[in-house]
Design brief:
DNA binding, Lambda_DNA-bd_dom_sf, 434 Repressor (Amino-terminal Domain), 64% helix, mainly alpha, Helix-turn-helix transcriptional regulator, 121 residues, two-stranded antiparallel ribbon, Cro/C1-type_HTH
Length: 121
């Protein structure tokens, strides 16, 4: 079985946050930037499209992984992403850095990590 989205878990988290904030489903959809029909279909067990999923987890402020179901034992077998792979999205999301500054920082990190890894060998 491949990994998949747990739509029920996502819908339950949305419902809890919606109730905590005193919002209607229509208001939640508007705030999240998705259609009201999307959240309605999710209530009937349908999966959101990728853009809808992203908008909803961003609205919740929760990691997307929270709503993933892994095949048995899969998370333990997955190699941890490299530090470069984990840093790249953080630097790219920083509005205070221009593209060339982000690229420069990623280059500096990559060179530094290569040096440190070579020293450990």
């Amino acid at each position: 079985m491949a990994g998949r989205l747990d739509t029920g878990r996502l819908y339950a988290a949305l419902d809890a946050q919606r109730e905590a904030r005193g919002l209607s489903w229509r208001q939640l959809a508007a705030e999240a930037g998705v259609s009201a029909s999307l959240v309605s279909r999710m209530g009937n067990g349908h999966r959101p499209d990728l853009d809808g999923f992203i908008a909803l987890v961003q609205w919740l402020g929760m990691p997307a992984e929270t709503f993933m179901v892994w095949p048995e034992g899969a998370p333990e077998r997955r190699p941890r992403p490299s530090l470069e792979a984990r840093l790249a999205p953080l630097l790219r999301a920083d509005d205070e850095l221009c593209e060339s500054d982000r690229d420069h920082l990623l280059d500096v990190v990559a060179v530094t990590l290569r040096h440190l890894r070579a020293r450990k060998r």
